[in-house]
Amino acid sequence: MTQADESFGTPFTTNTKELKQERAVRTRERVLSAAAVAFAAKGYPAVTILDVAQSAGMTKGAVYFHYENKDALAVAVTELFYRRIGAIADSVELLGLPPVSSVAELLIRTAVAFREETALQAGARLQLERRLIGAQLPVPFETYTNLIASWLARRPESGAPEGVSSPDTLATVLVSAFFGAQHISWVLNDRADVLERTIAVIRTIIPCAEKDIELCPSAPRP
C-alpha cells in the first residue's frame, strides 16, 4: 500500500464505521418508536414482534437484531419514559421558579406530555402491566416523588401554611393523585382533560397554591 493509500484509508474506514453506527442508532430509534405506539395502543399482552416490525417498516429479524425479545422492548420503552420524565424535570429546574411553582410546573408539563407523547402513554401502560412482563422494570414513580419532595423541602417554613404535611408526605400524595388522575383521564377521555384534572389536583392538595400556579409559564390562562 502506498503512502497515499494509507493516508486516505483511515478516514474512509472511520467514516464508514460512523455511518454504520448512525444507521444502527436510527434503526433502534425507529423500532423503539414503533414499539411505543404498539404498547400504548394495544398493551403488552396483545403486542407481537411482528406488530412492531410492520409498524417500523422492517422485518422481524431486523427487530430481533436490536432487541432480544418483547420483554427487552418493554424495558427499553419504559426507560425511554423515565428519560423523558427526567428531561421535563430538568427543563423545569432551569426556570428557577419558587419551590411550589416548580412542582406545579412539573406536574403541568408532565400532564401535557401524557396527552401528546406516545412514549409517555406507552410507559404508563407498561407500568400497569409490569407483572405480565418477564423482565424487571424501573421502580415506578420513586424518582419523581423524591424530586418533588426535595423541591417542596426548599420552601421556607415561614411560607408554609400551618398544618401542612411534610414534604415527603405531600409529594407522595401529589404523585399518587396525579398519576391516578391521568389514568382516569385516559380511561374516560383519552387524556383530553388531563391538564384540567392536574390543575384540580394541585389546587386541592397544595394549600394556597393559586399564586404559585400563576407563576407557571405552562399553566392555562383564562
Quick take:
The protein has 222 residues and is an all-alpha fold.
Average pLDDT over all residues = 89
Our count of helices gives: 10
Name the beta content range.
Answer: under 5%
| Unreliable stretches covering 5 or more consecutive residues | 4-9
Task: Compute the separation of the termini in Å.
Answer: 74 Å
Radius of gyration: 22 Å
Helix content: over 70%
N to C succession of SSEs: HHHHHHHHHH
Structural class: mainly alpha
Main sheet characteristics? none
Instruction: Please report the total strand number as a whole number.
Output: 0
Key traits:
mainly alpha, 222 residues
Give a written overview of the molecule.
α1 crosses α6 (118-128) and α4 runs antiparallel to α5. With 222 residues, this protein is mostly helical. The protein is elongated, with a radius of gyration of 22 Å. 72% of the residues lie in helices and 0% in strands. The relative contact order is 0.11. It has helices spanning 3-42, 49-56, 60-66, 70-93, 99-116, 118-128, 142-152, 167-189, 194-205, 210-214. The chain is built from 10 helices and no strands. Residues 4-9 have low confidence and may be disordered.
